[in-house]
Amino acid sequence: MNAELDLLIRLGDYDRPQEVGDRAVQAEELGFDRITVGETTGWNIVPPLTLAADRTDELGISTDVVSPYGRTPAMLAQTALTLQDTADGRYRFGIGPSSPAITERWHGMDFDRPLRRTREVIEIMRAVYEEGNPAYEGDIFEIPGLGYERGPTENPPPIDVGTLGPKATEMAGRFGDGWTPQMFTADGLRDRLEDLERGANLADKDLSDLRVAPIVRVIAGEDREEARRKARSTIAFMLGAYGPYYGNSVAKQGHEDVVEDIRAAWDDRDTDAMAAALPDEVLDDLAPAGTPDEVREWLTSYGEIDGVDAVRVGFVNGMSEDDKRTTMEAVADLV
Questions:
Q1: Which of 19, 43, 255, 269 has the most CB atoms within 10 Å of its CB?
Q2: Cβ atoms within 10 A of the Cβ of 267, count?
Q3: Facing residues of 211 across strands?
Q4: CB of 278 closer than 8 Å to CB of 235
Q5: Which segments within 88-182 are labelled E, that is strand?
Q6: Regarding beta strands 91-95 and 159-161, do their DSSP bridges make them parallel or antiparallel, or are they unpaired?
Q7: Which residues, other chains included, contact 132 with Cβ-Cβ below 8 Å and sequence gap of 6+?
């Protein structure tokens, strides 16, 4: 496969942060290029990523993604710079506009102007990187400024932006160093890459200057139907119950009727009906699920989309450790 291969790690799958370090070692041994970890309402990402960075030598380390509401911009810059030093320059910082549920029900903040906030946070982080000072006057933040005690850095971590919609993705292209979308069909991804490129051009950049690393949910197993059952359940839940954004995005990619049916089943909290409402062809558009050969073929095709630099492999719900090992080994054959 021409694209690099990243592994998305879900912190909720582990009992202790040290186990994330174990998974990172395993990923490096199998030849993955990078691991990435998201942060929602579970563990703080810094300790497990510190362990992962300390126990590996070449594996890239990423966050995927951090909320712009959960820490101040200066603290986000401190966090990113600390992880970059911990990982000896192998770290990439990931940020996204987040969601109303996490912002309001976890962080206790108003979900106000998420795109503007994300942009300003990125600009303030770059001010700390380049000037050693978060001084800034914006629509949301007004910061008089105070010197970062370690001063400007010569090797700041790149900033990846996780977005879905056209305006948000244009923002990612303009202000980010990379883009980490999720739940896109191949055709939907090609369409959105045009928005990313438009944003990059506004900043006098080329699309090739950005690391494009879409996330896909993957399961490979010899029991093809069981693998597809688990994937179908996960994708249906993400479309119907996991906030409005993934469902809205997939609906606009040509599957509006399917998303409506899945959401109607979720209104009754009928997860079996949600899965049943996801046709094979839509599952196949969104997720590689089946035998190892089928999964490798899907990922190879997706990774060959013009503009894609890496594919981020995430697990589906209900996978055993054997399922995860089988899936990791299957996709690692593409490295």
A1: 255
A2: 9
A3: 178
A4: yes
A5: 91-95, 136-137, 142-143, 159-161, 178-179
A6: parallel
A7: 147, 148, 150, 151, 152
Amino acid of residue 256: E
**How does pLDDT run across 179-201, given as a tens digit for each residue?**
999 999 999 999 999 999 999 99
Apex 178 CA angle, 173 and 180, nearest 5: 100
Question: Tell me, what DSSP letter sits at residue 11?
Answer: G
Q: Please state at what angle helix 18-30 crosses helix 321-332, rounded to 10 degrees.
A: 30
Residue 202 has phi, psi (to 5 degrees) of -65, -25
Q: Looking at residue 11, what is its pLDDT?
A: 95
Confidence (pTM): 0.95
| pLDDT score at 242 | 87
Question: Tell me, what DSSP letter sits at residue 7?
Answer: E
At CA 291, angle to CA 62 and CA 324, rounded to 5?
Answer: 40
pLDDT in tens, 272-285: 999 999 999 999 99
Give me 59's structure tokens. Answer: 């594996």
Structure tokens at 286: 């969104």
Domain boundaries, the chain: 4-223+287-332, 224-286
Tokens coding 16: 């202790």
Provide the sign of the torsion angle of the four alpha carbons 189, 194, 200, 206, taken in this order: positive
Contacts of 227 (CB under 8 A, 6+ apart): 219, 220, 221, 289, 290, 291, 323
Q: For residues 230 and 218, give the distance between their C-alpha atoms in angstroms, rounded to a whole number.
A: 10
**Side chain identity at residue 273, one-letter code:** A
Distance between CA atoms of residues 116 and 23, nearest Å: 35
**Rounded to an integer, what is the distance from CA 81 to the centroid of its chain?**
20
- Report H helices in 133-279: 166-175, 186-202, 224-240, 245-250, 256-267, 271-276
Correct CATH for 4-223+287-332 of 3.30.470.30, 3.20.20.30, 3.10.180.10, 3.40.1550.10:
3.20.20.30
